[in-house]
Every structure is written in structure tokens, then in C-alpha cells.
Amino acid sequence: MIATYSFADRWKLALKSRHFRIQFIVSLVVLATIAFLIPYFFLYIQQRNGIVLNDPLLKLLHPVDVSSVTFTVIYGALLLSIIHLSFSPERLLLMIEAYCILTFLRVICIALVPLNNPEGLIVLRDPFVNRIGYEGNVITKDLFFSGHVSTIFLLYLIVVSRMLKIILLLAMILIASLILIQHVHYTIDILAAPIFSWVAVRITKFIFKPDEISFETMN
Fold first, then answer.
1. What is the Cβ-side half-sphere exposure of residue 143, based on CA atoms within 13 angstroms?
2. Least enclosed by CB within 10 Å: which of 7, 50, 71, 205?
3. Phi and psi based region of residue 52 (left: phi greater than 0; alpha: psi -120 to 50; beta: remaining)
């Protein structure tokens, strides 16, 4: 049974699989490459002119700065998920691969759908990313689709703990609400995000066949 293995045993068994080792290393390299290149893409789209959508929901919401609450929820959900997934090497690998594909899909969508900021935007202040990744530049035009909402839903699809799934689902709903309150995204950006998360996971499973390197098969 999988429950009889310790944290160290799971990783030892996973790393015995050449398939797993190659995928894990390549995925980390791709993830690092994305982290290096994505700021340049966002700086480019920030200079681009787009359209302003007519969003009836945003017109009903008075914009309020809730950045601190938003990122407390986001980073709390990420931390819980990473801790949980670290006990399951194959699930952690699936998450990294799916996140890379999700980011690729998001880059394509942002490139193809040039949007300007929603009216009444209050800049979402990330305590880490804006300072480290963008040299102090504020990015506001990375709109369709929401990266924060799609990432949390991606984690929801991948984790196996029922309790954590509930927490992530509630976190996603709260984050989506807070982002709309702050007028950071259009409603369509939020509604589309879970769809792309689902697509990213399906593509990942189809391409990389994680079942072939599932923990139960590592002997």
C-alpha cells in the first residue's frame, strides 16, 4: 500500500525510475526558463495598447485595495499544496508539468487578446514577484486569463486530499472575488481561468502519461 511508505522512501523509489528522473529534471529546467523569460513578455505586453471591455459586474463593484488579503490567501494555498504534493513525487511532477503548459497557454491567450486595464483598477501589489521579477515595474495588462485563479484551480485538480481540495476551491472563489473587487481582471478573465486549468492538466496527462511513472509501479 502506498500509505506504508515514508516521505524519503517515496522519493527514493521515484528517483529509481529513469523516466521520472528525466521528466523531473527537464520540467525544472523548463520552469526555470519560464521564470527567467516571462518578465520580458509581460514588460512587452504592458507597453501594448488594447481594448477596454464593458463589464457590467465590475460596474456594480466599488474598487477597494485588498492586495494583502489576496496574497495571504494565494501564498497560503500554494504553501499547503506544495507541502502536500511533496509527499507524492509523481503528483508534484504532474503539477510542475501542468503549470508549465498552463503558463504557455496563458502567454498565447494574452498575446492574442490585447486588453487594457479595467476601469477603476487598483494595482494588485504582490509583495515578492513585482520586486524580484519585474525590477519594480507594475504589470497590469496580463489579463486574459487570470493566472492566480487558474493556478489555484490547477492545484485543486491535482491534489488528492479531499480536505485540501475543499480549501483550494474556497480559496479560488475568495481570490476571484477579491480580484474583481479590486478591478484587477475582467469577469471573463476569471470565468475562463478554470477551463484553461482543466485543459492544461488534460494535455499534460495525454503528453507525459504520468500513470506510467505512478508510485505504485516503482519497484
1. 26
2. 7
3. beta
